[in-house]
Amino acid sequence: MSNPIISIILPTYNGSKYISTSIESCLGQSFSDFELIIVNDCSTDNTAAIAETYAAKDGRVKVIHNASNKKLPLSLNTGFDAAKGKYHTWTSDDNYYAPGALQELLSMLEADASVDFVYTDYVIINDANEITGKRTFGDINKNFTHFQGCSACFLYKAKVYDANKGYNPGAFLIEDYDFFVRAFLQFRVLYVNRYDLYYYREHAASLTSTQGDAVNDIAKIMLERQMGLLEKKLSAQ
């Protein structure tokens, strides 16, 4: 596909346990005009073989194998630098979309040309795909100073990635939070309070579970920095 509407980046490292579910949730979307770029970050399990199997069956799937382990932020940049879509998103190898997710997110963006970035809430699942809860993020436009994170269910215009100059490798573990807040400072962001588009898996091996304290410490530092940027933005208006 030379000019897909949406580019989905799927970074992965040793994701063989769940990655098939994640990939199939992309390929099973009701909206089909997308490319799926899988970035394999030097996995030592059979993740690469699984990814290549899907690429061989579906022309929308592309696989990039990193020559060295880059970690998540740089792997995201590798994928998005190769992306050709008008709109961008990324997903994790242990999460999955509802079948109508891309169509719904795209409709939200295209309903108002002034909106550059849309995000929603999501459902939380466990290892057995059982629903264990929901996560509500709230509207960042109304409560920026109390905003505690960003959603994994989102879609944004390609120009947001360009303006942000990609994901910050110095924000490892909270690269999504850092990217989201920087986008908010420059673009119009829309929040939609619904949970039915994305399933976020919480399990013992996930980064947020194994490195939770580090995530919290980094988040505090990044929040202080972003608040300083926001104050400059408001004072300039």
- Order of strands in the sheet with most strands: 3-2-1-4-9-6-10
Indicate the percent of residues in helices: 25-40%
The major β-sheet equals: 7 strands, mixed
Q: Under CATH, the topology is which?
A: Spore Coat Polysaccharide Biosynthesis Protein SpsA, Chain A
Structural class: alpha/beta
Topology as a string of helices (H) and strands (E) = EHEHEHEEHEEEEHHEEHH
* DSSP strand tally: 11
Strand content: 15-25%
Distance between the termini: 42 Å
Overall mean confidence score, pLDDT: 89
Q: Tell me, what's the shape?
A: globular
Q: Roughly how many Å is the radius of gyration?
A: 17 Å
Can you tell me the CATH class? Alpha Beta
Annotation field: number of helices:
8
Please outline the helices and strands.
Elements: E1 6-12, H1 19-27, E2 34-40, H2 47-57, E3 61-65, H3 71-81, E4 87-90, E5 96-97, H4 101-110, E6 117-120, E7 122-125, E8 131-135, E9 154-157, H5 158-164, H6 175-184, E10 189-192, E11 198-201, H7 207-210, H8 212-236
Parallel strand pairs: 1-2, 1-4, 2-3, 6-10, 7-11
Antiparallel strand pairs: 4-9, 5-11, 6-9, 7-8
Helix pairs in contact: 6-8
Please give a quick description of this structure.
The protein has 237 residues and is of the alpha/beta class. The protein contains eight helices and eleven strands. Helices cover 37% and strands 21% of the residues.
